[in-house]
Amino acid sequence: MSVKDQFLAKVMNRTATISVVGLGYVGLPLAVEFAKEGFRVIGIDVSADKVSALNAGSSYIPDVAEADVAALVKRGNLRATTDFAALRDAPADAVSICVPTPLRKSRDPDMSYVIAAADEIAKYCHAGLLIVLESTTYPGTTEEIILPRLIHNGFRVGEDVFLAFSPERIDPGNREYGVRNTPKVIGGTTPACGEAAVALYSTAVDTVVPVSSTQAAEMVKLLENTFRAVNIGLVNEMAIICDKIGVDVWEVIRAANSKPFGFMPFYPGPGLGGHCIPIDPLYLSWRMKSFNYNARFIELADQINTSMPLYVVNKVAEALNEASKPVRGSKILVLGAAYKRDVDDVRESPALDVIKLLLDRHAEVTYHDPYVAQISLEHAGGHGTMRSTPYSHEAITAADCVVVVTDHSIFDWNEIADAAQLIVDTRNATAGVKATSARIVKL
Ligand SMILES: NC(=O)c1ccc[n+]([C@@H]2O[C@H](COP(=O)([O-])OP(=O)(O)OC[C@H]3O[C@@H](n4cnc5c(N)ncnc54)[C@H](O)[C@@H]3O)[C@@H](O)[C@H]2O)c1
Q1: Rounded CA gap, 44 and 117, in Å?
Q2: Same domain? 315 vs 430
Q3: How far is residue 73's CA from residue 52's CA, in Å, rounded to a whole number?
């Protein structure tokens, strides 16, 4: 029996051992889904805290139910370690890499996490192992970073070991779509690699979408996220244009959305956030620089989207000015620090930029977010940390301006509008508010 057929048989009868490297927002849900399918799953993470939390049966990712983790750990289907030697000792039949791929301060891709994980995997790589990179990255990464490390070990890819890329599409906080019912795109280095990866993921995901190469699979993810970044950039520009001509952009989008074909609504906001949309398109534009090609849509969308926090702060200044107040010394309460509704993730959140810019103008800034107890302003070029102020009617009333940055569904907009003097609403969160004495300024 060929190495590939042995692998396929182990997948079919659920005797394969699967390792997931990087147990964050992407890795933990994936590990849980494979474990639920009956595989023995070993999570590997450099964070000893995450590893011990998981081994104790607790979940630190809001979308992953603690009861699921506890049951799978108890049943022996799921465990975690910081030691990559588990790949050899278990031994693992497949390993999915879900480590971070951030940008450096210079806005170039930081591949150090992928390289570190690949180096460790290469040490313990053995015949029959399928390696799947899931981290979002520039086209060519799988073949440029992972492949040489495997060949270096003398393995023949597609015969002794298998390599594929499968972009993760998880949408944190989405109650409708999770790992199982979000179709998964998979591209292998060779047809046999693709076949092995498709067989494995078909067990945990309802629909897999094979493509012909790892580069095509890498590119799919970048098209999806560039599509979002560009359309959000477009609608942010529309918000600026509508403001100039005195038209409500939200009304325009709502009406345009009545068109049953050829239109898809995107909504303006205080800027892009999260680990994906603000970052992934820049991986592509960075890659294009080596082809001497300027990815203009990406650069333009990035310019518009990253200018939105300043646009919001200028709106706050204008709104305070109307009330004869300067920004300096005004009490400003920012509602929401997370990058989007109902999540606890502040990575790249525009709230950090809005707060930092308001502090630069000497406003007295506080924030409230029920899911984010503390923020660091370092990433936004600021200093120090800030703690979420408790929510109260008095805190809203005391603020000269309340800035809505994240429209968590837990917020009661009628109550907030009742208590506030002035609201700058970047999310159209107050659309349904009944008559209020607060002045509401929308993006
Ligand atoms: N979060 C999302 O919504 C989302 C969606 C789609 C794709 N992605 C992509 O998935 C990848 C992972 O993102 P995430 O949000 O899960 O990140 P995360 O920060 O939540 O998790 C990454 C984990 O990897 C661990 N880690 C770092 N270096 C490691 C190493 N060398 N070995 C083992 N573990 C290591 C970290 O400790 C952390 O637990 C990124 O490329 C991201 O762009 C994320």
Answers
A1: 10
A2: yes
A3: 12
Distance (Å, whole) CA 239 – CA 402? 20
User: Ligand 1 centre and the CA of 44: distance in Å?
Assistant: 12
Q: How far is the CA of 168 from the centre of ligand 1 (A)?
A: 10
Pocket of ligand 1 (CB under 6 A): 21-27, 44-47, 50, 98-101, 113, 116-117, 135-136, 168-170, 172, 275-276
Among residues 4, 202, 215, which one has the least CA distance to residue 93?
4
Does residue 177 sit in the same domain as residue 314? no
pLDDT at 439 over 90: yes
Domain-terminating residue out of 212, 235, 257: 212
Confidence of residue 111 (pLDDT cuts 50, 70, 90): very high
Model pLDDT, residue 110: 95
Catalytic residue, chosen from 98, 125, 193, 276, is: 276
- Give the domain range for residue 80: 3-212
Q: What is the CATH number of the domain that holds 189?
A: 3.40.50.720
Q: Is the model's pLDDT at 285 over the cut of 80?
A: yes
Q: How many domains does the chain have?
A: 2
pLDDT digits (tens, 9 = 90+) for 347-398: 999 999 999 999 999 999 999 999 999 999 887 777 889 999 999 999 999 9
Task: Determine the straight-line distance between the first and last CA of the chain, rounded to whole angstroms.
Answer: 64
401 is annotated as an active-site residue: no
